[in-house]
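Morning!

This is the sequence you dropped in the shared folder:
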Amino acid sequence: MDGKAHDHGMLGEGRAGLSPADRAALDEILSGGWAPASNERGARMADLLGLLGGTPWADAGDRGTLIDVTMARVLRAGVVDGERAIEAALVPDDQEALDAWVLGGYDLSRAPGSLRGRLEAHQALMQALTAVPPSNERAVLVDRTVARVDAWRRNEGRRLPIEPVPAYRRIRWRELATVAAMVMVGTSVVWPMVSAVRHAAQRTACLGHFNTVASAMGAYAGDWRGSMPVAVTEMAGLPWWAVQPGKPVANSANLFTLPRTGYAKLQDLACGGNSTACRKKETPPNAWDWGSLDEVSYSYQIMFTSDRPGWEGEGGKAGRMAVLTDRSPVVLRAVRGEWVYPLENSPNHAGRGQNILFTDGSAGWYDRPVVGQDNIWLPAFIEAAIRRALESDEWVREQPLRGIELPQGHDVFVGP
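The structure's back. Tokens below.
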């Protein structure tokens, strides 16, 4: 303070500090309640502090001028080289802590524990700002400051363009492709499960239909001396797949006897896996068969023979025979003139298998169209031809069915 080097003590290498005389003068000012010092050193110290605008004896007019100059410098500092400077902002952690403190009603106990350290620093800073007791002069200063800030905001609001709030970040094509891949993988995993559950439900419902048909056949057999449902026993010169609703011509007319005579309903003979099945609750009057081959959901043991099976009912095991199954894929291919595949499963259940009903009233699921050694889709002589071809190690494609083939003996051969 006195311009002499020996009066400036050193607090450490590279760190200058007040000399003992200056510290004594500053202590005198502070202990005297900021009163002017009695000696020259103290007066000079008081004048220096007065330049900071913090001394209580500063003139009110000078203080107003100082405020105006300060605000002008603040506004000027907001522009660098003719462009808006980047506004200062809290770091994300401090901003999160401050938001949590405000939302919690300025109560530290309601804030997350991970933010407690930063919140304590915020609270200490706020307490430092509000520690000075208010005075009239301070209230005037606050009012003027707020008024200046409001005026500046109004002026800036007229000049600044309003722009949409930018998104936090843009989605890149790589991220979009990743999400799409995850969706595809999830679908490839979930969809087969959903499909399997749906087919299992259809298979269970279809098996329920077979049990209903078994009860209807039992009732029919009780009224007709153990006979299976029959409407026509002789071919009229047409193939047994020639479904005609007004005439009992096709083999399906024999199965249609159950809904026609009231032993069952058409919806009991409609599989959920056949999208073209007839699901009417009431049987059309004067109808002897389904409207077309596509409406038929189940294939029935062909009855155009004297070796027709009889209904044994529960407990009958001696002549147990398959008599009803999901519709035959071999017949559907033969009608279109296509080559047949003997081991192909019914289309009712997406080729997974078929339900089969037996003369003893039992029904079950089979994943191959074979009961014992009997292929239920083919008559015995075609089965024998296939076996001969396999035994001779030669591949022979048999001629498609013509609709005139008949079962022989205890041969399971269903249609349509």
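Headline: Residues 339 and 399 are 7 Å apart (CA to CA).

More detail when I'm at my desk.
O.
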